[in-house]
Protein backbone atom coordinates (compact mmCIF):
# COMPACT_ATOMS: atom_id res chain seq x y z
CA UNK A 1 0.00 0.00 0.00
CA UNK A 2 1.27 3.44 -0.89
CA UNK A 3 1.90 5.87 1.98
CA UNK A 4 -0.94 8.40 2.19
CA UNK A 5 -0.65 12.16 2.16
CA UNK A 6 -3.75 13.48 3.92
CA UNK A 7 -4.97 17.04 3.38
CA UNK A 8 -7.48 18.38 5.90
CA UNK A 9 -9.47 21.57 5.42
CA UNK A 10 -11.45 23.21 8.20
CA UNK A 11 -14.66 25.18 8.33
CA UNK A 12 -15.80 27.54 5.56
CA UNK A 13 -13.05 26.43 3.17
CA UNK A 14 -15.76 24.73 1.13
CA UNK A 15 -16.69 28.30 0.14
CA UNK A 16 -13.30 29.14 -1.40
CA UNK A 17 -13.70 31.08 -4.60
CA UNK A 18 -16.77 32.90 -3.32
CA UNK A 19 -15.80 33.59 0.26
CA UNK A 20 -14.04 36.95 0.71
CA UNK A 21 -11.85 36.43 -2.38
CA UNK A 22 -9.80 39.49 -1.51
CA UNK A 23 -8.58 37.55 1.54
CA UNK A 24 -8.81 33.88 0.52
CA UNK A 25 -8.39 34.10 -3.26
CA UNK A 26 -10.52 32.87 -6.11
CA UNK A 27 -9.21 29.31 -6.40
CA UNK A 28 -11.86 26.80 -5.43
CA UNK A 29 -11.22 24.01 -2.97
CA UNK A 30 -11.89 21.47 -5.70
CA UNK A 31 -9.17 23.03 -7.85
CA UNK A 32 -6.73 23.15 -4.93
CA UNK A 33 -7.38 19.50 -4.15
CA UNK A 34 -7.12 18.44 -7.79
CA UNK A 35 -3.71 20.05 -8.16
CA UNK A 36 -2.44 18.50 -4.94
CA UNK A 37 -3.77 15.07 -5.85
CA UNK A 38 -2.06 15.08 -9.23
CA UNK A 39 1.23 16.13 -7.67
CA UNK A 40 1.06 13.59 -4.85
CA UNK A 41 0.13 10.73 -7.16
CA UNK A 42 2.87 11.68 -9.65
CA UNK A 43 5.33 11.34 -6.77
CA UNK A 44 3.99 7.86 -5.97
CA UNK A 45 1.86 8.61 -2.94
CA UNK A 46 -1.78 7.96 -2.18
CA UNK A 47 -3.80 11.13 -1.59
CA UNK A 48 -6.88 11.98 0.43
CA UNK A 49 -8.53 15.36 1.01
CA UNK A 50 -11.21 16.00 3.61
CA UNK A 51 -13.07 19.20 4.31
CA UNK A 52 -15.51 19.65 7.14
CA UNK A 53 -17.29 22.43 8.98
CA UNK A 54 -17.65 20.04 11.92
CA UNK A 55 -14.83 19.83 14.44
CA UNK A 56 -15.72 16.23 15.33
CA UNK A 57 -15.28 15.08 11.73
CA UNK A 58 -11.76 16.51 11.59
CA UNK A 59 -10.92 15.18 15.07
CA UNK A 60 -12.07 11.69 14.10
CA UNK A 61 -10.15 11.75 10.79
CA UNK A 62 -7.02 12.84 12.64
CA UNK A 63 -7.56 10.02 15.16
CA UNK A 64 -7.83 7.49 12.33
CA UNK A 65 -4.43 8.62 11.07
CA UNK A 66 -2.95 7.06 14.20
CA UNK A 67 -3.35 3.57 12.73
CA UNK A 68 -3.97 3.97 9.01
CA UNK A 69 -1.44 4.46 6.22
CA UNK A 70 -1.28 8.24 6.65
CA UNK A 71 2.38 9.25 6.36
CA UNK A 72 2.01 13.03 6.37
CA UNK A 73 -0.78 15.52 7.07
CA UNK A 74 -1.29 18.94 5.56
CA UNK A 75 -3.93 20.86 7.48
CA UNK A 76 -5.62 24.20 7.15
CA UNK A 77 -7.66 24.14 10.36
CA UNK A 78 -9.26 27.48 9.39
CA UNK A 79 -11.12 28.92 12.39
CA UNK A 80 -10.38 25.81 14.47
CA UNK A 81 -6.74 26.94 14.42
CA UNK A 82 -7.61 29.53 17.01
CA UNK A 83 -10.08 27.54 19.10
CA UNK A 84 -9.59 23.80 19.00
CA UNK A 85 -7.66 22.04 21.74
CA UNK A 86 -9.57 18.92 20.65
CA UNK A 87 -8.02 19.05 17.17
CA UNK A 88 -4.60 19.71 18.70
CA UNK A 89 -4.95 16.67 20.93
CA UNK A 90 -6.13 14.46 18.05
CA UNK A 91 -3.13 15.45 15.91
CA UNK A 92 -0.82 14.86 18.85
CA UNK A 93 -2.39 11.43 19.39
CA UNK A 94 -2.07 10.56 15.71
CA UNK A 95 1.67 11.08 15.95
CA UNK A 96 2.06 11.79 12.25
CA UNK A 97 4.04 14.79 10.93
CA UNK A 98 1.94 17.70 9.77
CA UNK A 99 2.26 21.12 8.24
CA UNK A 100 -0.18 23.89 9.11
CA UNK A 101 -1.34 26.01 6.17
CA UNK A 102 -3.25 29.28 6.07
CA UNK A 103 -4.18 30.97 2.81
CA UNK A 104 -4.07 34.41 4.40
CA UNK A 105 -1.32 36.00 6.46
CA UNK A 106 -2.97 35.47 9.82
CA UNK A 107 -0.35 37.66 11.47
CA UNK A 108 -1.49 40.67 9.49
CA UNK A 109 -5.15 40.27 10.46
CA UNK A 110 -7.23 40.48 13.63
CA UNK A 111 -5.24 39.75 16.80
CA UNK A 112 -7.28 36.61 17.59
CA UNK A 113 -6.01 34.99 14.37
CA UNK A 114 -2.37 35.26 15.49
CA UNK A 115 -2.68 32.40 18.02
CA UNK A 116 -2.71 28.79 16.86
CA UNK A 117 -3.34 25.80 19.09
CA UNK A 118 -1.43 23.67 16.59
CA UNK A 119 1.66 25.52 15.39
CA UNK A 120 4.05 24.34 18.09
CA UNK A 121 3.29 20.71 17.16
CA UNK A 122 3.69 21.29 13.42
CA UNK A 123 6.78 20.57 11.31
CA UNK A 124 6.17 24.04 9.96
CA UNK A 125 3.57 26.69 9.19
CA UNK A 126 2.88 28.29 5.80
CA UNK A 127 0.65 31.34 5.73
CA UNK A 128 -0.11 34.23 3.38
CA UNK A 129 0.81 32.47 0.14
CA UNK A 130 -2.75 31.66 -0.88
CA UNK A 131 -3.28 28.35 -2.64
CA UNK A 132 0.45 28.12 -3.33
CA UNK A 133 0.95 27.51 0.39
CA UNK A 134 -0.68 24.10 0.00
CA UNK A 135 1.71 23.33 -2.88
CA UNK A 136 4.71 24.36 -0.82
CA UNK A 137 3.53 22.17 2.06
CA UNK A 138 2.97 19.24 -0.29
CA UNK A 139 6.41 19.59 -1.86
CA UNK A 140 7.92 19.56 1.64
CA UNK A 141 5.90 16.47 2.54
CA UNK A 142 6.95 14.66 -0.63
CA UNK A 143 10.61 15.57 -0.10
CA UNK A 144 10.50 14.43 3.52
CA UNK A 145 8.85 11.11 2.69
CA UNK A 146 11.19 10.41 -0.22
CA UNK A 147 14.20 11.07 2.02
CA UNK A 148 12.68 8.72 4.60
CA UNK A 149 12.17 6.05 1.90
CA UNK A 150 15.78 6.46 0.76
CA UNK A 151 16.86 5.61 4.28
O1 LIG B 1 -6.12 31.95 6.00
C1 LIG B 1 -6.71 30.87 6.20
O2 LIG B 1 -6.69 29.90 5.40
C2 LIG B 1 -7.53 30.67 7.47
C3 LIG B 1 -8.93 30.38 7.14
C4 LIG B 1 -9.97 30.72 7.94
O3 LIG B 1 -11.22 30.33 7.65
C5 LIG B 1 -9.79 31.63 9.10
O4 LIG B 1 -10.73 31.35 10.16
C6 LIG B 1 -8.37 31.59 9.62
O5 LIG B 1 -8.18 32.57 10.62
C7 LIG B 1 -7.39 31.78 8.46
From TrEMBL:
Q: Which residues form the active site?
A: 24 (proton acceptor), 102 (proton donor)
Q: What is this protein called?
A: 3-dehydroquinate dehydratase
**Species name for this entry?**
Eikenella longinqua
The UniProt entry, under SUPFAM superfamilies, shows: Type II 3-dehydroquinate dehydratase (SSF52304)
Give the record's subunit note: Homododecamer.
Query: Which pathway is this protein engaged in?
Result: Metabolic intermediate biosynthesis; chorismate biosynthesis; chorismate from D-erythrose 4-phosphate and phosphoenolpyruvate: step 3/7
The UniProt entry's GO biological process terms, in alphabetical order, are: amino acid biosynthetic process; aromatic amino acid family biosynthetic process; chorismate biosynthetic process; quinate catabolic process
Tell me which EC number(s) this protein carries. Answer: 4.2.1.10
- Recorded name of the encoding gene: aroQ
